[in-house]
Automatic annotation (TrEMBL):
Residues 15-156 form the Mycothiol-dependent maleylpyruvate isomerase metal-binding domain. Residues 178-263 form the MDMPI C-terminal domain. NCBIfam families: maleylpyruvate isomerase family mycothiol-dependent enzyme. This is Mycothiol-dependent maleylpyruvate isomerase metal-binding domain-containing protein. Gene3D superfamilies: dinb family like domain, SCP2 sterol-binding domain. One of its GO terms (molecular function) is metal ion binding. Pfam families: MDMPI_C, MDMPI_N. InterPro entries: DinB/YfiT-like, Maleyloyr_isom, MDMPI_C-term_domain, MDMPI_metal-binding, SCP2_sterol-bd_dom_sf. It comes from the Bacteria. It comes from Kitasatospora cheerisanensis KCTC 2395.
């Protein structure tokens, strides 16, 4: 694809996922909004509020003036504090108010994306509190498609409404998470030089990849499976996503570890690549 086609693909992926969230919420009974999700500390209503907050900030809306309570255990650093503020501000909003605000925000954001005059490599602000920085426009759209889809799946698991596991945004997410594997295995998990780790993922978006640790200690990706890896990690697509996004503890995840058990468990413990 050309750069402009990539921008459109990311935009379409975001659109499909965020509209799916609106459809998912429309028939939701009031009590379901308080169900806990796997996103630490957040209920269904909180996840929706987070999506609204980020998209509103991208539209240039001012951040709310609000003092956070001191007893939020999942708020552990400046990044989580930054993300929590627009969420906590909306905890008194009714489901009707939230669905209306989400729909209006999606309309405004879709219009802004259609009218955008940024090129794929033009630098734009990525709002993430202390992690805020300028990123290429195409990267911002990728990150939004990724984030919205991950939260869509948070909502679907909490509401027991599975779906969109192979949607366009799911494909964006898969490719983004696969790119992170060499760093997670080499740097975060500290896999030894010369070792090989195979990821065998089944389900809606199956793939098999081998991470090899070179003489300099860095990881590289091989799309073919190593014949005799040090460890092979087999899991389904949802488990892979949940591990990479910090939604499940490695000790309880349904993963088949074949080979070096210590290395395999260490890699699983360091797969999470989202802040």
């Amino acid at each position: 694809m050309t750069d402009n086609q990539t921008v459109q693909a990311y935009t379409d992926a975001w659109t499909q996922s965020i509209e799916s969230i609106s459809e998912l919420l429309a028939p939701l009974p009031t009590d379901a909004w308080n169900r806990a999700t796997e996103c630490p500390g957040w209920s269904v209503r909180d996840v929706v509020s987070h999506i609204i907050g980020v998209e509103s900030e991208l539209l240039g809306d001012p951040r709310p003036i609000h003092a956070l309570p001191r007893d939020l255990r999942h708020v552990t650093n400046e990044f989580t504090r930054y993300m929590e503020l627009p969420v906590d501000k909306r905890r008194c909003h009714t489901p009707i108010e939230l669905t209306s605000e989400l729909e209006y925000t999606v309309i405004r954001r879709s219009r802004a994306l259609r009218n955008a005059r940024y090129g794929p490599t033009d630098l734009v602000r990525w709002p993430a509190g202390p992690l805020s920085r300028e990123v290429p426009y195409a990267t911002l759209l990728l990150l939004r498609a990724f984030d919205v889809w991950v939260h869509e799946q948070d909502l679907r698991r909490a509401l027991q409404e599975p779906g969109n596991l192979d949607s366009p945004a799911a494909v964006v997410t898969r490719d983004w998470l696969i790119k992170s594997l060499p760093q997670q295995v080499a740097k975060e998990a500290g896999a030894p030089i010369g070792s090989t780790v195979v990821f065998d993922v089944s389900g809606a978006l199956p793939f098999e990849r081998t991470v090899r640790i070179g003489a300099d200690g860095t990881g590289s990706m091989d799309e073919s499976a190593a014949a005799d890896p040090d460890v092979k990690l087999s899991m389904d697509w949802q488990t892979f996503v949940r591990l990479c996004c910090g939604r499940v503890h490695p000790e309880t995840a349904l993963v088949n570890v074949v080979g070096d058990q210590e290395l395999g468990l260490r890699v699983l413990a360091h797969l999470s690549s989202t802040p």
